[in-house]
Write a structure and sequence with these properties.
This protein is mainly beta and 466 residues long. It is built from 3 helices and 31 strands. It has helices at 13-23, 94-112, 117-128; strands at 4-9, 30-33, 40-43, 73-76, 79-82, 132-133, 137-139, 142-148, 156-160, 168-171, 182-189, 195-202, 207-215, 221-232, 236-238, 244-249, 271-276, 285-288, 297-302, 308-314, 322-327, 357-360, 367-373, 376-381, 389-394, 405-408, 415-422, 426-433, 436-442, 449-453, 459-465. Strands 6, 7, 8, 9 and 10 form a 5-stranded antiparallel beta sheet that branches. It has a 4-stranded antiparallel beta sheet with strand order 11-12-13-14, with no helix packed on it. A hairpin with a 7-residue loop joins strand 24 and strand 25 (389-394). The chain is globular, with a radius of gyration of 27 Å. The termini are close together. The model is unreliable at 10-49 (pLDDT under 50).
Length: 466
Amino acid sequence: MVGACSWAGTSASELMLQRLVARLPRSAPRNYPCRNCKSSRSAMAPAANGAPQSGLTVLPSEYPEVLRDPSVVEELHGSKVADPYRWLEDPDSPETQAFVEAQNKLTAKVLEQCTTRDQFKSLFTALYDYPKYGTPFKRGDRYYYYYNSGLQQQYVLYGQDSLQAEPVILLDPNTLSGDGTVALKDAVFSDNGQLVAYQLSSGGSDWSTIKVLSVGADGAAVPHDDLLQHVKFSSIAWTHDHKGFFYNRFAEPKSSPDSLGTETDTNQNQLLCYHVLGTPQSQDATVLADPGHPLWMFGAEVTDDGRYLLVYASEGCQPQNRLFYLDLQQVPKAQGSGALDFSSFDFFKGTQPLPLVKLIDNFDASWDYVANEGQQLTLKTNLDAPRYRVVSVDLSNPGAPSSWRDVIPQHPKDLLQSAVALQGDALVVRHLRDVKAALTLHKLSSGERVQEFELPGIGSIGGFSG
């Protein structure tokens, strides 16, 4: 049984903040325009002890004029609703761009008057300039962690072949663009730790591309030619044969590639696809689509034993989802490569339906995979438990979800935040207790509590791996 967690508690940054703020000068009271008259009035702005303040004035007449279009009126539920600024919803129109440019000019003019701007920049730069480590984790025979030296735009993924070995950079997104705007959204290892599928996005866009690399003998990245596009809000789930993975994409957007990330098109009908390594994206099978529910999103996960594909169907941001599963042993293998062959199940081109089992076919609650032992599935849910609980179900005879056995019952007052299964009969449970973290070890089979881990003090647990 091995585990690691990230802890965030009281640190030296608080003392640093006090010292830096103490160096900043007190300023005069702030002047600002009165909303009820044309003159200005003076008032003392509340601020932290010694925090920089500035006297800035913006007259209403300085703001850009905004066109009100009285012609845009809609009838909603029997009432007429005016929307005179609807034209601003088109970010590419000349009128909107002119308005944004005028706003930016005003903003720049105001900021140029701010005598404390450089002080604030120095203050927050100093506060943020310290080494940051992500939770270490093991994949295959190597250990990995994310690291930021202090002021890097993006975190760097390091690996090492032992806990004492020198770390080697596997992925550094800071090198992918001159301004640091290409971000590593996700990096998912295959079960044997030898392959990585990773998502990159540019300029803060939700659109991303997926690329693949191998981990070389020296721990460095060996890039593959695989390139998957039109990816958005995607999971990545490797099958345990290390020959491919599931991911999400949309149909090719109507907007031009240069405008992706600023387009106003609505993305509907997300697809769940399967990519076989070394093949073009055009050959990827569409494993699941549901045109009858165009707003549904599909997340994918392969169970720890590699047997089942779990599919989470969700709509909106509420903590609720449907849960389906597919026994991957029912999927034939392609001749030659031996990879799973979903061509006969392809939603658009296949000849037979996917043997997908709808374990939970409603949006009554949230369901998340914790572990499984064969057909015995362990899940975290908020069904009849707003503070969450962990339950167990036999897939061969599931019955009603309300009858599923409690492994970790809902606590009378603590919020169950996560449950992570470790090797053997071990389950680590994280609760939020009186706004501070609590970590306990239980038996996975019965839920019996084994021990509570003593934490360094009041704080939060930001991650756990095992």
